[in-house]
Specification:
Keywords: Monooxygenase, Oxidoreductase. One of its GO terms (molecular function) is monooxygenase activity. By secondary structure, the protein is α+β, with helices and mostly antiparallel strands. 37% of the residues lie in helices and 30% in strands. Strands 2-3-1-4 form a 4-stranded antiparallel sheet. The longest helix is centred in the first third of the chain and has 17 residues, at 21-37. The two termini are 18 Å apart.
């Protein structure tokens, strides 16, 4: 389970996917399979969560990694590059962005 704390030396990645109601579940299935079968088994992976808006036009993915380099290594692997192409075919756009926690309430 993700935890959000200031000062932890973790890499947070938030990815948003723009989808249609017709492709939302298909992309969710692909993302679930990617996390279950590959991403969650990679060195440095801590936790992740997938979120869908009510209209099924956006998927948000919140992931935590021990280090930035761990996330980048996973992202650049041949298997993830193939999975990323499959994600691209099911959405209009997606963008992973790395963040550092600045404050919690």
């Amino acid at each position: 389970m993700p935890t959000i704390k200031i000062g932890e030396n973790r890499q947070t990645v938030i990815t948003t996917f723009e989808v249609t109601p017709g492709t939302c579940q298909d992309l969710m299935d692909e993302l679930n399979a990617a996390y279950r079968d590959f991403i969650s088994k990679q060195p440095g992976f801590i936790a992740a969560g997938l979120h869908v808006n009510d209209a099924q036009t956006r998927i948000a993915n919140y992931a935590q990694w021990e280090k930035r380099e761990d996330f980048l290594a996973m992202l650049r692997s041949p298997e993830m590059r193939e999975r990323t192409r499959a994600f691209s075919a099911l959405c209009k756009t997606f963008e992973p962005v790395m963040y550092d926690v600045q404050e919690t309430f």
